[in-house]
Amino acid sequence: xxxxxxxxxxxxxxxxxxxxxxxxxxxxxxxxxxxxxxxxxxxxxxxxxxxxxxxxxxxxxxxxxxxxxxxxxxxxxxxxxxxxxxxxxxxxxxxxxxxxxxxxxxxxxxxxxxxxxxxxxxxxxxxxxxxxxxxxxxxxxxxxxxxxxxxxxxxxxxxxxxxxxxxxxxxxxxxxxxxxxxxxxxxxxxxxxxxxxxxxxxxxxxxxxxxxxxxxxxxxxxxxxxxxxxxxxxxxxxxxxxxxxxxxxxxxxxxxxxxxxxxxxxxxxxxxxxxxxxxxxxxxxxxxxxxxx
Length: 293
Prior knowledge:
10 helices, single chain
């Protein structure tokens, strides 16, 4: 039966991917991606294209490959496509979280942060890119490995991907710690006592304690939820890869559907419904009025 672990099955999944689940996921990610693309273009928030939209495109491609695998379960090509795309897709989505949180820091008080919003975003996005590259290299090695044809073991690529996922988990934990410290300092009104974290003289006035509005509270809650589900997904992927390509975890479809696919769906739709363009960022005219005030 589709999706059940069958040790005797010779296909790369050790099961036949569910057609129904694949169609549902393609539809969900497709709608979210189109929605995010439209929002990014309408609001001119171009940075959403290489982050959230890129995540949606890769997830749609990955689940399309799984749909292909339902029809051709012994074909390695769709299996390789879904390995690379689904392992990489959440990484740019996580980068969007770093960008949004950096803007929140700028708005409610840069003096409560150890890094300026610009450096905060640059640092964590750089770590995110490193994680993406490591996972990409590992995915490429695993996808092209064939002991019978080129003598390369896919476990090598799996170990590289494992390292990339582990690094991503560390980044998420460090980001969460830094974010928590910032929020605590803001709520307790414990500034760091310097202005090194301020981006420029122009934003010095804004570096003082700003108002944590209802919209910003909602956005912070959304980022917290999104980070938690992406953390759950990363933990699952770490355990999955550590268990090996023929392990029971990677060979059980329901784990992948729930702990990977569903987690990313929750994260990407969180930013659809609680969009930073409405809850955080302001129009240029609003910014000029704010600065004059």
